[in-house]
Write a structure and sequence with these properties.
Layout: H1 98-108, E1 117-122, E2 126-132, H2 135-141, E3 148-150, H3 153-162, E4 168-173, H4 175-186, E5 198-201, H5 208-219, E6 222-224, E7 235-241, E8 247-252, H6 263-269, E9 272-277, H7 285-300, E10 304-308, H8 312-317, H9 319-329, E11 332-336, H10 337-344, H11 352-359, E12 365-369, E13 375-379, E14 382-386, H12 399-412, H13 418-433, H14 442-457
Parallel strand pairs: 1-5, 1-9, 2-7, 3-8, 5-6, 9-10, 10-11, 11-12
Antiparallel strand pairs: 2-4, 7-8, 12-13, 13-14
């Protein structure tokens, strides 16, 4: 199926009140840049635009002294607790890809910011602390296994103190950052087009954790453009994995729950080709207003708008807010099968194909993953089935984030064949599932980008009526 969306279907299915179908848009790709004609349904106020210069920093490393364990037991970044039980301030373990990040820097990091960003993400900037614990540890702290819980500062400190003597590591986490890092690595070299310029905006504090987060993304060629909040506390997620691979997550929001819309954010959005909004931000009322204004600015300046669903419970709690943004601004929506059904108010018995088709009446391009069963790309009420890419699963965390990077990469490279784009996304997801950790490595990214470019040159385009479209 060729990706050329010229008009929505003539008849639209019923939908919750106040939701309006997305208007026409088309993708053009001279010199691998994106333009589109989609306009907002709303009246857009004029927002002054300023060139956002950001923070240009040379390569830096965190001082060990700033990462040690404080007297209250809280690790400012991460004190490495060896399996022998000794807590040593002099040791620090991050997400294990330092060597790869060095390669990233050589590949294209620069202190001169580009005139335009290929992709800008707006999302939660949180540092992940991940470690392996047993069931007894969870019971002792009164934590329900396999759940996600929001905790306050005191609860976070209590859990981290309890982890003293355990081995765990810190990483610049978040669903959106996983996608952006993978995308930056896929486009780190001029394969099939110019090297990509990728950035993220969010909220971090001026504490050592905030510096750690910015530094890790910068080293992965993802520019974090937001200024740290003075005296703010960077958000964290503690990920506790038991031997049965169940994950229990404790989120401390910190400053990540507040993202203000200002002239700096407006300025960088005005110079963006694709603007991606992370669904977790819908949890925060003040941030929803920022999302709306940011999407208006993106639309005004011809950027495509993509929204990640992020979480079923989040969609259910903020259903109207999601559809306010999706119905009025979204060109692309990323969801798994459960999230897609939640968007549609479908029962669990409904197939992901049905949800994909339904959503594609309101959003020009819909990407729905269905685990080991494959995935679907929806356009104009039809769904292209993408078979899963074979792999031996090791860690499924981050599979959807990786898949989204493949779709974004295909759009940026001007790909019109949905089957080919989805196949790349599936291969990227399988690569991440077949390793420990959520980040696509530099080496794998280069191989995937080279293979995709080669296959693209030999692709035979298919039409809507082909077997690539799932049967009715």
């Amino acid at each position: 199926m060729s990706f050329s969306i010229l008009s929505p279907p003539i008849s639209l299915p019923s939908h919750p009140p106040s939701i309006v179908s997305s208007p026409n848009f088309a993708l053009y790709h001279p010199h691998y840049t994106l333009y589109h004609r989609k306009r907002s349904h709303r009246h857009c106020r004029s927002i002054p635009k300023e060139l956002f210069l950001g923070h240009c920093r040379t390569k830096q490393s965190l001082e060990i002294g700033s990462m040690g364990k404080r007297g209250d037991g809280f690790f400012l970044v991460s004190a490495f607790c060896s399996s022998r039980g000794s807590s040593r301030e002099g040791d620090f373990e991050s997400d294990g890809d330092d060597e790869e990040e060095e390669i990233d820097e050589v590949a294209g990091s620069s202190c001169v910011l580009p005139e335009r960003w290929d992709v800008l993400g707006l999302g939660q900037a949180m540092v992940d602390f991940s470690g392996v614990v047993d069931d007894e540890f969870l019971e002792r702290l009164g934590l329900e296994k396999g759940t996600r819980k929001v905790v306050n500062h005191e609860e976070r400190g209590r859990v981290l103190r309890a982890m003293d003597g355990c081995s765990y590591k810190a990483a610049a986490g978040g669903s959106l950052s996983n996608t952006l890092v993978a995308l930056a690595r896929l486009g780190g070299k001029p394969i099939g087009g110019p090297a990509l310029n990728v950035a993220m905006a969010g909220s971090v504090g001026s504490d050592p954790l905030g510096g750690f987060y910015r530094s890790k993304l910068q080293r992965a060629n993802v520019n974090f453009l937001s200024t740290p909040i003075k005296d703010g506390t960077t958000g964290t997620v503690i990920v506790l994995t038991t031997p049965d691979a169940q994950r229990t997550m404790l989120a401390y929001q910190g400053t990540s729950s507040t993202i203000n819309y200002d002239s700096c954010l407006a300025g960088v959005i005005s110079k963006t080709n694709i603007f991606v909004v992370e669904g977790y931000l819908f949890e925060f009322p003040d941030t929803i207003r920022t999302i709306s204004r940011a999407c208006e600015e993106a639309r005004r300046n011809g950027a495509l708008v993509a929204v990640t669903a992020s979480d079923v419970s989040c969609i259910e709690r903020h259903y109207d807010d999601f559809w306010e943004i999706v119905g009025n601004y979204a060109d692309v929506v990323f969801a798994n099968s459960d999230e897609a059904r939640a968007f549609c108010h479908f029962s669990p018995k409904e197939s992901p194909i049905s949800a994909t088709r339904y959503l594609s009446h309101f959003v020009p391009l819909v990407s729905v993953t269905d685990g080991q069963r494959g995935s679907y790309i929806g356009v104009k009420g039809e769904a292209v089935y993408i078979p899963p890419s074979p792999c031996i699963p090791i860690d499924t965390c981050g599979a959807g984030d990786a898949y989204a990077s493949g779709i974004l990469y295909g759009i940026i490279r001007g790909v019109s064949d949905l089957k080919g784009m989805g196949t790349l996304a599936a291969r990227i997801a399988a690569t991440v599932v077949g390793q420990q950790g959520t980040r696509l490595t530099v080496q794998d990214a280069v191989k995937l980008a080279e293979s995709f470019t080669f296959n693209l040159k030999n692709t035979v385009r298919t039409d809507v009526g082909s077997d690539n479209i799932s049967s009715l």
